[in-house]
């Protein structure tokens, strides 16, 4: 297989990484086919495409895995996506920032969108895979390499369909791993214009390969960042009454603010504040002059999310007023919760059943994790699902965002089939 890269502003094809006849990895990874868990379920053109191109999907994923790029730096990944889409006659366009791709397939007024995220995490991989990350301090430990390869496969398969009942828009989004997320860049660039529904998948190492988990309602939580900086004149710990005890004030906020919030918001909302960092002082006998406290505040309730910032600000002010410590609060809103609507979820479940059969349908729990797919659902209806990537027992369940995360590559073909069938069901 030869895969050539192409920059949007350069005519023809070129590839700075792979030589003609080579796989996408410089090391020349040997590709072995994987089992297609939905083989024979149709439509015929999808079965034919996967028989001929399944190993290509694996190779794309392995190449992207070996060459990860961090948020808003996904230039080579963007080039690869553009090239692979152009080579089957499609006309992708790149976002103004130079990373991220949008591409329409088919014709007609009706349009549904399929989204994948393309950025990596600032982690060092520790899997020992032959196609491990070759980029220092960056690795695809969240499965975005798989998401990208799956959407490339779905797009190229749809491009070969004899006829589509409308348009399918491919959205390859940068910068999912940073807040407030690259979904906002996509929306600002017009990626949702004319779209009636949007769908996405995310790798889930708790589900076995061959299963896709769906849920009506909140699937992920809103995730906001809090940074509180405190100031004091400082002084000797023997005379705390002559200064403002900054460490005591930090402790007050650390212990009291989560409790206050638990009494001020509906406990059914899944709202949770967890501190991740606190820094103040050096000497045991000196009251420090400054300190900082950082944490995340999450909720699964959209209305609660909108009310949290002023509630946190007023609560912090009340807690610190008796201490005499000065403070500044930086409250950074992150992403809204991902809330899948009932109709879109039903269509996605129909897509899963058509892709791999009823046995592939699974439920899934609401998570406190954040996912910027929620920004799309602020504008159009849609559904988000969890793609099983666990090989099953006795294989360990290596969680995402860890240096040891691995996935069962059979899930790639399940993902391609699921996205194709979901698009067809949504346009029917």
Task: Walk me through this protein's architecture.
By secondary structure, this protein is an alpha/beta fold. Helices cover 31% and strands 22% of the residues. It has 9 helices and 16 strands. The protein has helices at 44-66, 75-86, 144-159, 183-188, 246-264, 302-320, 342-356, 373-377, 410-427; strands spanning 93-94, 101-105, 111-117, 167-173, 197-208, 212-214, 217-218, 222-231, 235-236, 272-280, 286-287, 290-299, 326-335, 339-340, 361-363, 381-390. An 8-stranded mixed β-sheet has the order 1-2-4-3-5-16-6-15. Strands 10-12-8-13 form a 4-stranded antiparallel β-sheet. It has a two-stranded antiparallel sheet with strand order 7-14. A hairpin with a 6-residue loop joins β1 (93-94) and β2 (101-105). The relative contact order is 0.17. The model is unreliable at 1-28 (pLDDT under 50).
């Amino acid at each position: 297989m030869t895969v050539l890269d192409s920059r949007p502003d350069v005519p023809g094809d070129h590839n700075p990484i792979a030589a003609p006849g080579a796989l996408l990895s410089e090391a020349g990874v040997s590709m072995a086919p994987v089992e297609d868990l939905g083989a024979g379920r149709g439509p015929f053109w999808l079965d034919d495409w996967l028989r001929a191109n399944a190993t290509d999907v694996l190779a794309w994923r392995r190449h992207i895995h070996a060459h990860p790029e961090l948020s808003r730096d996904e230039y080579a990944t963007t080039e690869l996506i553009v090239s692979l889409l152009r080579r089957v006659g499609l006309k992708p366009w790149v976002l103004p920032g130079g990373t991220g791709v949008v591409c329409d397939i088919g014709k007609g007024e009706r349009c549904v969108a399929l989204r994948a995220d393309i950025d990596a995490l600032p982690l060092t991989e520790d899997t020992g895979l032959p196609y491990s990350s070759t980029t220092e301090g960056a690795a695809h430990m969240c499965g975005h390499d798989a998401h990208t390869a799956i959407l490339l496969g779905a797009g190229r398969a749809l491009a070969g369909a004899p006829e589509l009942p409308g348009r399918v828009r491919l959205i390859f989004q940068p910068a999912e791993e940073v807040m407030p997320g690259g979904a906002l860049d996509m929306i600002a660039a017009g990626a949702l214009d004319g779209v009636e529904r949007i769908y996405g998948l995310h790798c889930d190492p708790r589900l076995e390969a061959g299963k896709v988990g769906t849920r009506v309602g909140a699937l992920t939580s809103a995730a906001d960042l809090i940074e509180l900086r405190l100031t004091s004149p400082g002084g000797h710990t023997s005379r705390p009454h002559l200064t403002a005890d900054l460490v005591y004030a930090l402790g007050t906020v650390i212990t009291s603010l989560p409790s206050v919030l638990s009494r001020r918001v509906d406990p059914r909302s899944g709202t949770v504040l967890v501190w991740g960092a606190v820094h103040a002082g050096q000497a045991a006998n000196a009251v420090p002059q400054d300190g900082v406290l950082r944490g995340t505040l999450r909720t699964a309730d959209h209305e609660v999310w909108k009310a949290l910032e002023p509630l946190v600000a007023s609560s912090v002010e009340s807690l610190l007023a008796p201490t005499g410590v000065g403070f500044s609060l930086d409250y950074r809103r992150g992403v809204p919760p991902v809330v899948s609507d009932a109709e879109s979820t039903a269509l996605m479940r129909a897509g899963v059943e058509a892709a791999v059969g009823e046995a592939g349908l699974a439920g899934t729990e609401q998570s406190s994790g954040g996912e910027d797919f929620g920004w799309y659902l602020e504008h159009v209806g849609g559904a988000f699902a969890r793609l099983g990537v666990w090989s099953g027992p006795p294989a360990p369940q290596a969680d995402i965002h860890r240096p040891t995360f691995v996935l069962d590559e059979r899930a790639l073909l399940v993902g391609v089939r699921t996205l194709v069938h979901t698009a067809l069901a949504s346009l029917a």
